[in-house]
């Protein structure tokens, strides 16, 4: 198993990339809300669960799925 598909940016698929971006943006929003607003909305932490699940699904697709084939358009 190629573990670089878990962390190397060039080896991530779109699901993993979106999930990591979502995790980072949610963490940033969490900090801003905590320090500048003083509280976070109820259920905000569920975002982390969703992004993590999205990352795990993307990882399973990346590791066990068939390699993406380039789409060729024939005329």
UniProtKB/TrEMBL annotation:
Domain of life: Bacteria
Keywords: Membrane, Transmembrane, Transmembrane helix
Residue spans crossing the bilayer: 12-37, 43-64
Record protein name field: Uncharacterized protein
Organism: Hymenobacter armeniacus
């Amino acid at each position: 198993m190629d573990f670089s598909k878990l962390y190397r940016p060039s080896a991530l698929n779109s699901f993993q990339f979106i999930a990591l971006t979502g995790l980072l943006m949610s963490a940033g929003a969490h900090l801003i809300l905590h320090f500048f607003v003083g509280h976070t909305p109820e259920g905000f932490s569920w975002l982390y669960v969703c992004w993590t699940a999205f990352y795990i699904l993307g990882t399973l697709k990346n590791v066990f799925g068939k390699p993406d084939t380039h789409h060729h358009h024939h005329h």
